[in-house]
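Example 3.
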Amino acid sequence: MKLVTRAQWGGPSNIGSSANPTRGCVAHYNGGPIGLKDKAHSACLDYVRRVHRMHLGQGWAGIGYSFLVCQHGYVIEGRGLSRTQAAQPGGNTSHYSIQMMVGGAEEPTDAQVQAWRDARAYIRRMRSVSGHVGKHSDFISTSCAGVPTNRLVASGALAGRGSSAPAPGPAPAPGRPAPGPRVDFPLPSGHYFGPKTGPTKSVSGWYGRTFKGRPDYAWLKTWAGQLGRRGWGVGKGRRFLARYGNDGRYGSEYRDLIEAFQRDQNLPVTGRLDRRTWDAAYTNPIS
Ligand SMILES: [Zn+2]
Ligand SMILES: [Zn+2]
């Protein structure tokens, strides 16, 4: 997937209140013709910034969509994951919104249709979201998402599988082996990295316990660093561990990262960094 983050187009660090949409993805379009067809990709980003300003002008927190997809096949982050939208009243906290960057009777390009699928696959890889694909007019009376895109919704074309599921962040080439060298799981059998309020076998990094000669938090940092080497955006201001960085102290940020990785690797999604999840980062190829 070719992802353009909000930072990359100059958007704010976050937009809108947090939410947990689970019920599917909804297609949108621009309304009037958008005229991007033969333009360079820089024009796509200009358009996104224009929509952002326009939505701000309407008194909204900023651009209203979760993601937008352009004719060059880029997935452009709007509000992104886990945010309330200003896109489909009645579904702004229950569904994700993905705008096809076309308007009027403009037909999306093949790359753009694939990008829409990529965006949906990405959302579903990162969060628990149903496979439902809808359109704006399922919620209110509107022409959105336009005749060409509504046809794609109806035919099931937008529900097609996304491209080969690369890791989020600056994606490395698919099929690469895991970056080495391998680090063995440092905890005793049955232990895992998890909440500090958990039982003894839940190692949080908060109590400075020592395993194999190193403090617990150093081990958790090592593992999250390995995800960084796999191409995941990890650290302060990045997609994961954005607030406190990779400090090795287990909390909701580590839980989110571990769950996202487990989902990506088709492991049981527990939020606990157990031996199996640990090893997957060192042995599974980057898909
Ligand atoms: Zn719409
Ligand atoms: Zn573009």
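The mean pLDDT is 92. Residues 14 and 79 are 7 Å apart (CA to CA).
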